[in-house]
Amino acid sequence: MAKSQKPRDIPPGASLVTANRRARRDYEILETLEVGLVLQGSEVKALRNGNAQIAESWARIDRGELWLHNLHISPYSHAAAAFRCEPDRVRKLLAHRSEIQRLALRVDQQRLALVPLALYFAGGRAKVSLALARGRSLSDRRQDIDERDAAAEAARSMAAARNRRNR
């Protein structure tokens, strides 16, 4: 049976712009948070066209503010030169001060990372699904693959036994 292609990192009714598919493979996701994204000029139109790459991006807390690095938004093709922004600029993320302080405390104490999972529109506003995550080692990834394979094999054998019994 094929895996569902519906993204699990966005709320129902939201329209996905781009997702970071490698994040769940490379990191153990501990907590997720929806934050807003500050955009300039024609970046909203570029996002609505799907001109964004989030795979290599990461978030950082600096002086009590949340910043998103390495999010590439290609310039909107029909925008005037005055409204075009730098594609790889650092963008500010919007969250409550108490949430930012709580995240900063956990990141500093537990050596965690802030990884964006998805970029989407919800209620007409650009949002980022941000995860508090711990990096996985190669052996952790291999162990997860082995567990998944064992579970699939068990499900296949149970289905085969069920089919033999129903004949």
Structure keywords:
single chain; 167 residues; alpha+beta; Small Protein B, Chain: A; 2 domains; seven-stranded antiparallel beta sheet; two-stranded antiparallel sheet; 4 helices; 32% helix; 33% strand
Please characterize this protein's 3D structure.
This protein is α+β, with helices and mostly antiparallel strands and 167 residues long. The protein folds into two domains: 15-136, Small protein B (Small Protein B, Chain: A); 137-167. The chain has helices at residues 23-26, 43-48, 97-110, 138-166; strands at residues 15-19, 27-37, 52-53, 58-62, 65-69, 72-73, 91-94, 113-122, 125-135. The strands form two sheets. A seven-stranded antiparallel beta sheet has the order 1-8-9-2-7-5-4. Strands 3-6 form a two-stranded antiparallel sheet.
